[in-house]
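Worked example 2:
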Amino acid sequence: MRAVWLTKFGGPEVLVPGDAPDPVPGEGQALIEVEFVNITFVETQLRSGTGPAPVRLEPPVIPGNGVGGVVSAVGDGVDGTLVGRRVVSSTGGTGAYAEKAVVAADGLFEVPGGLALDDAVALLADGRTATMMLRAARPRPGERVLVEAAAGGVGTLLVQLAKANGARVVAAAGGARKTETAVRLGADETVDYSEPGWARKVGKVDVVFDGVGGDVAREAFTLLRQGGRMVSFGLASGEWASIPEEDAQERGVTIVRPSATPEELREFTISALEEAARKRLKPLIGQRFPLDDAAGAHAAIQSRRSVGKTLLEVSRPS
């Protein structure tokens, strides 16, 4: 099969397409004929070998953690009726940038009818995260909610979810193209946080969804009124906000640190997929790259020019 190899740590160019043995499902596993691959910002950090990434890869390895496609075979102990079904799944941290992927069968999510497979892949990680962040912060109708990185994969979903909850959404993003994207998704107000003094234009808010970390998050923290909540879902700046707990207590705000059991995480994913199938949530797929150009996909994410979700598309000879 065709695959993309992380040959060593470094820039996007270390992602090199090549061949790999076809994987075979073992006990409790399923084989997916991959059609789309989900790429996250964290994967660019894993590739570089730097940053606060959750796991450490050991090159040479096929990277990637999210796929969508059709089940073509199952191992022992797995229901054979899964074969032929459209599914999305995590791979466990490696093996996604490929034409075929073996995954744990009990981690599969069947794609609901009426939902396109590429949309389901775009929701696999980001839909779960956005749903978990929303439930952790619990914005109430009429509250002002600031969404950082509002044109990113999670941010675009949070704009929609917070708006659907009755909140007034202030979308913060870098540059006119990204703020305009947030308006199209329903944001009530926008602010460009690449401009000096951006926070002064916002005013007080009740909730901050922090997808940037660093200085942007620390400025956003100052905007919270008493009783406000701040919850972080990303660190596009390369560092977490690291707001001292005593500072939050002094200002009467709460730093929400979400936690969830594996069962709850699964429920969050299912919720996002079902909301999308009902046309109440729409992932924004901003960029698509062929499998062999995973390096180009990583470069686009790092450039800060990308919007929404970035996917790899797997095409096969007809």
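The chain has two domains: 2-110+284-313, 126-256. The longest strand covers residues 29-39.
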